[in-house]
Design goal:
The protein is an alpha+beta fold and 117 residues long. It has a single domain (6-116), classed as Threonyl-tRNA Synthetase, Chain A, domain 2 (2-Layer Sandwich). Helices cover 30% and strands 41% of the residues. The chain has three helices and four strands; from the N terminus they run αββαββα. The chain has helices at 6-21, 55-65, 109-116, and strands at residues 24-35, 40-50, 76-88, 91-102. Strands 1-2-4-3 form a four-stranded antiparallel β-sheet, with helices on one face. The two termini are 23 Å apart.
Amino acid sequence: MSRWPADHARTELLRALEPLAGPLTVVDAESRDWASALFVGARHRLALALEGEDAAARAERLRDTLPEMELDQRGGFVADIQVTVALLGDLVVLGIEALTIEEAETLSVSRVVRRAG
């Protein structure tokens, strides 16, 4: 299994979030590699300032719906995501903590059998 650097996984996570969140600015982003006995991925902490008149409504909708959504992420998937919303004066900040997992590279059974024989 190859390994994604955490920054690549974060880029993919942000790419998947942007169409859902609308106009935003990344206020803070921190990612680190993560692995278990079976999976390789990254843990992410993001602070995204949503822009526009409907920012608060979009943030609340995302807080309620993102944990149940399947995000379109190339080469991996979001295994866990938690979302918070903070209002800092006029600024609406979406807080995201997520675990992304790299998809395993798979071989077909026939290729494995041919190599073994």
